[in-house]
Write a structure and sequence with these properties.
By secondary structure, this protein is α/β, with parallel strands linked by helices. It has helices spanning about 50-60, 80-90, 100, 110-120, 125-140, 155-165, 185-200, 215-220, 235-240, 245-255, 295, and strands spanning about 1-15, 25-35, 40-45, 65-70, 75, 90-95, 175, 205-210, 220-225, 230-235, 300-305, 310. It has a single domain (about 1-310), classed as Rossmann fold. The structure holds adenosine-5'-triphosphate and magnesium ion.
């Protein structure tokens, strides 16, 4: 069953150009269609600036959308009434990259963890304390941390506290935007394992955004590869890693040291074009090693290679 359903989503920012107050459109998300299934970890991979966080913020209803539809548990998030929206805010949580800035430095840990419960529920103090203890235990901390402030913890511990805060309202869905990239390598594995445990024990659905293909390989059930605001390939993690199809996916995997010698020829050239001025046709054509004339003026269709693996590229569009 799908928990989140994104249909043909477009998100655009208006950016100041600085010249006589002129504004330009930044086409951050360009026609994303994505179904997220209950209980899965779906990863979104792609270069910096390709629209991953914008997609996440749109799903959280933190960003205005230009076109498309997003539903959570069968309900369109833009036509929810006040009560449904309140429930949605409880059920959908986010973990950010930097646990140094996501926790209020002036608040004791107990107050940081209490806050969502005080705002969103009518629970008694005793019930709140019990929930906090339960969630602290889940993330591998104990109540001795409650009277302390964020600066008294290491990065890994702070990320555990941020995760506990995301858990206090018993969410169904968590978006983790680069949850380990600000942490020491030695600590990353602990947080990655914690996310895996939460998925397995609590059946929480995750949207995982990360640059790190090894984190994706270890954690994700499926991978969506994004390029200039579009999903160019989507499939089970194993198919994406063992049988990548899109030239961009191959290039991304090629950036992982020693990942696959066969892909070595497929290096990514040049920089990501600006989303203010999107290339015509296939958006990857300006950097694609398999460029064909058709790619410059036509938009490739999405081709289903199998029931669970699809790719948006002319190399596959005629194959059944
Ligand atoms: N508030 C904003 N105003 C104008 N442009 C923005 C805004 N937020 C993001 N953008 C632009 O939209 C595009 C997509 O940004 P986004 O943050 O979604 O990328 P990302 O894939 O999350 O990148 P990163 O991996 O660096 O976090 C980028 O070109 C970015 O500069
Ligand atoms: Mg981002």
């Amino acid at each position: 069953m799908s928990l989140i359903n994104v249909k043909n989503l477009y998100v655009e920012y208006l950016a100041d150009k600085g010249i006589l107050g002129k504004k330009t459109s930044v086409h951050a998300v360009n026609g994303v269609t994505l179904e997220i299934k209950q209980g899965e970890i779906i990863a979104v991979a792609g270069e910096s600036g390709c629209g991953k966080s914008t997609l996440a913020k749109a799903i959280m209803k933190l960003e205005k959308i230009k076109h498309g539809e997003i539903s959570f548990d069968g309900k369109n998030i833009h036509s929810m009434n006040k009560k449904e929206l309140k429930e949605f805010r409880k059920k959908v949580q986010m973990i950010f990259q930097n646990p140094y800035s996501s926790l209020d430095p002036k608040m004791k840990i107990i107050d940081t963890l209490k806050e969502p419960l005080v705002i969103n529920t009518k629970l008694s103090n005793q019930e709140i304390t019990q929930i906090i203890q339960e969630k602290l235990e889940m993330v591998g901390l104990d109540k001795s941390c409650l009277e302390l402030y964020p600066h008294e913890f290491s990065g890994g511990q702070r990320q555990r506290i941020a995760i506990a805060r995301a858990l206090v309202l018993n969410p169904d869905f968590i978006i983790a935007d680069e949850p380990v990239s600000a942490l020491d390598v030695s600590i990353q594995a602990q947080i990655i394992n914690l996310i895996k445990e939460l998925k397995e024990k609590c059946n929480i659905t995750f949207l995982l955004i990360t640059h790190d293909m090894s984190v994706i390989k270890y954690l994700a059930d499926r991978v969506a590869v994004m390029y200039l605001g579009e999903i160019v390939e989507l499939g089970n993690t194993l198919s994406i890693f063992n049988n990548p199809k899109h030239p961009y996916t191959k290039a991304l995997l090629n950036a992982v040291p020693n990942f696959n010698k066969k892909l070595q020829a497929n290096m990514l050239k040049g920089e990501l074009p600006s989303p203010e001025n999107l290339p015509s046709g296939c958006k990857f054509h300006t950097r694609c090693p398999n460029f064909m004339p058709i790619c410059e003026c036509n938009i490739p269709p999405v081709t289903a290679l199998t029931e669970r693996h699809n790719v948006k590229c002319f190399l596959y569009s005629n194959k059944e």
